[in-house]
């Protein structure tokens, strides 16, 4: 089977074609001979080959059955030796535990279809066994939003930063892909992954309810945005002051530590506002 696949637009496929970029991703992620690497969406395997040259083991999850067949032929020796495990499936449904991956015991590298970014981050930061770090190819504008463009936060940046420390490593021009996308990309490192900052599950649910409501209307002041959660604007103002947040402030200017303080203080007052599973699931 040749490499002349047509990219499926429905899967958001843009194949990385630059070996130099692939090697730089491996270097940036500090992949070593002791690492187990989970690769999401290996595509034609250009990054897979660079990972296999360094890592102890690579587990690659690919949704497209055409590419799975191609990769089986391309990396037959590595598969036979056990250095590469190739799994056909959806990375959003993949359970790291099924491959005996432990919390913090593997690194995650991915060239993601842009349309699954939010679900992917939520999945591997808060819903399943967490990696020690992630090196992700993302749309450049999305990468900037995650790290906090111009010092301003977004619901996406807060949702990532509460579990980790994100940083942009380097930019990737659209010409490094085939077919070339209409926008440039960036490699973002998500490091220091930890789910302990929010503590108990109830605090996590309240945290995400608060930021979802707070970012609901960017031009409104916080007390007005949060009033529906607290029953009145006055109650919202009291909760904000308790967390050392100005009621007249804007959501984009509030730090992670302040949001965490507000969520934790809210859990101390039973019945302050309801928590529903549906609302708390929409993190990013």
From TrEMBL:
Short name of one Pfam family: RrnaAD
Location of this chain's protein in the cell: Cytoplasm
Keywords: Cytoplasm, Methyltransferase, RNA-binding, rRNA processing, S-adenosyl-L-methionine, Transferase
Record field: catalytic activity: adenosine(1518)/adenosine(1519) in 16S rRNA + 4 S-adenosyl-L-methionine = N(6)-dimethyladenosine(1518)/N(6)-dimethyladenosine(1519) in 16S rRNA + 4 S-adenosyl-L-homocysteine + 4 H(+)
Gene3D superfamilies recorded: Ribosomal RNA adenine dimethylase-like, domain 2 (1.10.8.100), Vaccinia Virus protein VP39 (3.40.50.150)
Binding site for S-adenosyl-L-methionine: 14, 16, 41, 62, 90, 111
Entry-linked InterPro entries: KsgA/Erm, rRNA_Ade_diMease-like_C, rRNA_Ade_Mease_Trfase_CS, rRNA_Ade_methylase_Trfase_N, rRNA_adenine_dimethylase, SAM-dependent_MTases_sf
HAMAP family: 16SrRNA_methyltr_A
Family matches, as NCBIfam families: ksgA
Functional note: Specifically dimethylates two adjacent adenosines (A1518 and A1519) in the loop of a conserved hairpin near the 3'-end of 16S rRNA in the 30S particle. May play a critical role in biogenesis of 30S subunits.
Stated name of the protein: Ribosomal RNA small subunit methyltransferase A
Species this chain originates from: Candidatus Taylorbacteria bacterium RIFCSPLOWO2_02_FULL_46_40
Gene name as annotated: rsmA
